[in-house]
């Protein structure tokens, strides 16, 4: 009986141990489900940061691996954008350039604190504009004004002035414009008046223009040394600015009230400006105070002026004055008309002294390069083309032209085309000299 009890107890113990072993194995299998599941699965890697699509029979990375290094908020709030604009994270100082936007406040307890530093808040910064010297502004303005005389674009000139000009020195530019124009011809003075009118309100004001003309009046004796008629020209500028509403009429009255304080040339200029402004319809006439330019002047008016110029030269004999008058015409494209009128006058004069004087005139034009060789030849060719009409009024036109061309050839060289086209007319011989022809034969038969 005792033996049976021991055997049954041993069997129960063995059964319990077997059950325990089975339960332990089950618990181990239950505790390691992930490990057992991974043995039957394979994973593929993708080169992109996004999780690759699972291939048949192959699963993707776990979800937590795809956003492991992401800087996006993980609390479910926000728009899904990186935190701090992508500047967050460990060891990151912030968005590049953010250090420039931060205001640094110095600490008085800082060992590097400097009580005399300019960043302590007790120093106020103000913008200071350094004004250039008047001589420097005048030096920079001169090439701009000379370039404007070439192209005539007031907008380009204004942009060039604004690059180096300040409001405190605007009057220097107006003063420089007038000073340079005084040394040039009337067409440039007209361009200078137009430039002052266009720059008014953009580069300088009426006060600046008045200050500039006041300084010019004070410097007028010195300007007259280089330009003898500076007083007359300056009065024209003052009257034109008043007509263009760039200068108030009160300026002329104020300067006239100064009386003996002004120098004699300045008093002359102010008195003439008052006369110009007080004329009947003076403001309208002042628009053409500098005359009409050669390119705008009508052709008939140009021809008339050329004829008057030649007659005045023949009367006075002043060759230098004639050259100055030709330059003042400012019509280099129309100089062939000047040559044409000169040659025509020599042919019609039938006077050797007049021919010599006009030949000297053409030679001087050629020597000073006032008239180009092309314009010179063109003027002679025009006379040759009109000889059929000229000979009706001047029967000896061919003889006079031939003599004048030979005289000119001795002083300067004419073009080959002019010499080749000159008519060759032999001297007519009478019947008695043996050139009777049919008439002579007929006379001999009658005698027989």
UniProtKB/TrEMBL annotation:
Transmembrane portions of the chain: none
Basic residues composition-biased segments: 65-82
Subcellular location: Cytoplasm
InterPro entries from the UniProt entry: ARM-type_fold, Initiation_fac_eIF4g_MI, PDCD4
Region described as Disordered: 1-92
Keyword Transit peptide: no
Entry's Gene Ontology cellular component terms: cytosol; nucleus
Gene Ontology BP terms: negative regulation of DNA-templated transcription
Repeat in keyword set: yes
Biased composition (Gly residues): 83-92
SUPFAM superfamilies: ARM repeat
Residue span(s) of domain MI: 136-257, 301-424
Chief localization: cytoplasm
Keywords in alphabetical order: Cytoplasm, Nucleus, Repeat
Name of protein: Programmed cell death protein 4
